[in-house]
Amino acid sequence: MRFRFSPAAIDTEAARRALLDGGAGGYVSFEGWVRDHNEGREVTRLEYEAFEELAIKEGDRIVGEALARFPIKHALCVHRVGDLAIGEMAVWVGVSSAHRGEAFTACRYIIDEVKHRVPIWKKEHYRNGDSGWVNCEACAAAPLHSHG
Amino acid sequence: MNRRPLKIQYYALLREQAGRSEETLESSAATAADLYAELNARYGFTLAREQLKVAVNSEFREWTQALNAGDAIVFIPPVAGG
């Protein structure tokens, strides 16, 4: 499985091992971390929720696209669900490749597409006690059409 | 269109606004778009259909997708992974 969810802290060492290949000359990874602010508000924690059945299919399609488009060896993405504290890792992407250039490009492709296409939602909890679903609260007042 | 059972699952903001994670309804909605209009009238969702995507039986589909008895429908709010 090239995209999976983790209900607990992501084991990056185990994920990295899945990418090892004698033909790979390098490996690139990206870690997304929970940040303590967003759009001017102090964030205290996050909740991630996913429509897992479709998310796994769509995530796997994205990693498959990266493998088809770029001459890389292996790629994997792991995303958290559940409650996360500031500084915790929310997502991990890893790519191994014969040469570094394609690994950077493919890693960037995967994280960008995952953020736009995979049915995962993030609820931010703020210092003042408010909370909100990212991309859903503001757009309810002023519709955005960039989604997708 | 006769009424037939449809299973709807709710996530994130829509789950909170519907006050439930899933339900099975007898509905005469012909398409996914018709079903969202029916549910929006009931729950008063703050998200317009244009802001959502829809999945039927765990695959993304067009809003014109015809619905059949027993279909599982998920309305997908703007995503925010990563």
| Spatial gap, N to C terminus of chain A | 24 Å
Question: Distance N terminus to C terminus of chain B?
Answer: 41 Å
Indicate the multimeric state: heterodimer
What's the level 1 CATH class of chain A? Alpha Beta
**By CATH's scheme, which homologous superfamily of chain B applies?**
Beta-grasp domain
What structural class is derived from the secondary structure elements of chain B?
A: alpha+beta
Q: Per DSSP, what share of the residues of chain A sits in E-state strands of 2 or more residues?
A: 35-45%
- CATH first level of chain B: Alpha Beta
Characterize the main sheet of chain A: 5 strands, antiparallel
How many structural domains in the coordinates of chain B? 1
Poorly predicted segments of chain A: 141-148
CATH architecture of chain B: Roll
Corresponding CATH superfamily of chain A: Molybdopterin biosynthesis MoaE subunit
Structural overview:
- The complex is a heterodimer of chains A (148) and B (82).
- Chain A is an alpha+beta fold and 148 residues long.
- Chain A has a single domain (3-141), classed as Aldehyde Oxidoreductase, domain 3 (Alpha-Beta Complex).
- Helix content of chain A is 32%, strand content 38%.
- Chain A has helices spanning 12-17, 52-69, 100-117, 137-141, and strands at 3-6, 26-33, 37-38, 41-50, 72-80, 82-85, 89-97, 120-126, 131-133.
- In chain A, strands 3, 4, 6, 8 and 9 form a 5-stranded antiparallel β-sheet that branches. A 4-stranded mixed β-sheet of chain A has the order 1-5-7-2.
- In chain A, β3 and β4 (41-50) form a beta hairpin.
- The longest helix of chain A has 18 residues, at 52-69.
- Residues 141-148 of chain A have low confidence and may be disordered.
- Chain B has 82 residues and is an alpha+beta fold.
- Chain B is 23% helix and 29% strand.
- Chain B contains 2 helices and 5 strands.
- Chain B has helices at residues 12-18, 32-43, and strands at 4-9, 22-27, 53-56, 59-61, 72-76.
- Chain B has a 5-stranded mixed β-sheet, covered by helices on one side.
- In chain B, β3 and β4 (59-61) form a beta hairpin.
- The relative contact order of chain B is 0.28.
- Classes of the chains: A alpha+beta (148), B alpha+beta (82).
- The A-B interface holds A 32, 48-51, 53-55, 57-58, 79, 90-91, 111, 114-123, 133-137, 139-140, 143-145, 147-148 and B 9, 11-13, 15, 46-48, 50-51, 53, 55, 58-60, 74, 76-82.
